[in-house]
Each structure stands twice: as structure tokens, then as C-alpha cells.
Amino acid sequence: QIMHANAIVFLVHTGLRCGELQALKWSDIDFANETVTVSKNLSMIVNRDRKPGQKHRNAKIKGTKTVSGNRIVPLNEKAVHALHSLQQIYRMLGVRNDLVLVSRNGKVLSNAQLRRVLDRVLRKANIDKPFTLHQLRHTFATRTLKAGVPISVVSKWLGHANISTTYNTYIHVLCSEEKDAAELLKAM
Predict the structure, then answer these.
(1) Which contiguous run of DSSP H or E holds residue 41?
(2) What is the β-pairing status of strands 29-30 and 35-38?
């Protein structure tokens, strides 16, 4: 079993950025209303005053970069199940922490550790195509747009500062939807 595989499932079903997941606390999850409140981001800050033996970078939880980064994202059944499964794994291992994504010793998972989790999940699923953590966010956006969620809503869920960012990034999805609609119209 891959301890943090559920984090990958959560990312693909919420569209959160990795840093947003890394900064997420259990108190940010509203299981009753099936939402997650995003208001923080984990950043790696260069330690310029480091002494020999100290880390070059330190993890620091800060607010989101923009006001639109603060948002409430709905959770589907798979995202909720992934969180419950993660809680169950933590209980079994005796891991106690306010943060949603931590290692066995209670430290926040780094991007590199999360990438290794993704790589293991891909190998276990026999997927040999290279895939990045950020592509999980794109997968979420593409799937929601193809499901008919309005671009303004997708933009809000992604925390984009303006809808044009979403539009410019996902224009190919919208164009393919328009082409499919034109084919449907011809078939009528």
C-alpha cells in the first residue's frame, strides 16, 4: 500500500495546487458540507543566513498569492473518501497532526516526496507515461469543463485571479466541446 496515494486522488478531484494541499489543515475540511477552504500555501523559502549543516530551504506556510486564491472548493465523493482513507491510515500509524499531508514522523511532505508518491501510484497502475503533479490540476480542470461546468465556476475553483487565465489555459477543451456540439447539431 502506498501511504499517501489518497493525496493524489484528492488532488485530481479538487484541482488544488501542491502547495495548497501541503498547507491544508484538517480544520479547513468541512465534511458535513463537503467543501475545503483554501487560504494558505506552503512555500520553500531560501535560508540565506544558514550555517553549515542547516537546510538550504525551509518550508513556510503563508497566505495565498492573490485574493482569488482564497476560495471554497466543493468535494466530490472520491475526494471525501480519499481524506477519510488518509485519516484511517494516520490513525493506524499513530500519526497525529493538524496538517492533512504529513509523513509518518509528522513532518510536512515535500514536493519531491509527493512526486515520488505519484511515481509509485503510476507504476502500480502500469502507467508508463510521464506525469507531473501539476498535470493533476489540469486533469481536474479539463474534466470539469468537459462535464459542462461553466468556465467561470472552474476558474473560481482553481483560484485563478481572472477568468481569462482559465480561458487561455483551457481554450483547447472549449474548442473541442464546440466541435462536438457542431457535430451534434449536424446529426439533428
Answers:
(1) strand 40-46
(2) antiparallel
Give the pLDDT of residue 22.
Answer: 95
Place of cell 480544520: 27
Task: Specify the residue for cell string 519531491.
Answer: 112
Predicted pLDDT of residue 167: 85
**Rounded CA separation 184/119 (Å):** 39
What pTM was computed for the model? 0.84
Report the run of H or E that residue 34 belongs to, with start and end.
none
Strands 71-74 and 57-63, how do they pair?
unpaired
Which residue has cell 481524506?
83
Question: So where are the chain's domains?
Answer: 5-47+54-187
* Host H or E run for residue 37: strand 35-38
Q: What is the reported pLDDT for 33?
A: 98
Which residue in the block uniquely carries the three cell numbers 439533428?
188
Record the cell numbers describing residue 16, joined without a space: 488544488
Residues in the chain predicted with pLDDT less than 50, given as ranges, are none
Give yes or no for a contact between 173 and 143, defined as CB atoms under 8 angstroms apart.
Answer: no
Query: Could you name the CATH architecture of 5-47+54-187?
Result: Orthogonal Bundle (1.10)
Residues sharing a CB contact under 8 Å with residue 49, sequence separation 6 or more, in sequence order: none
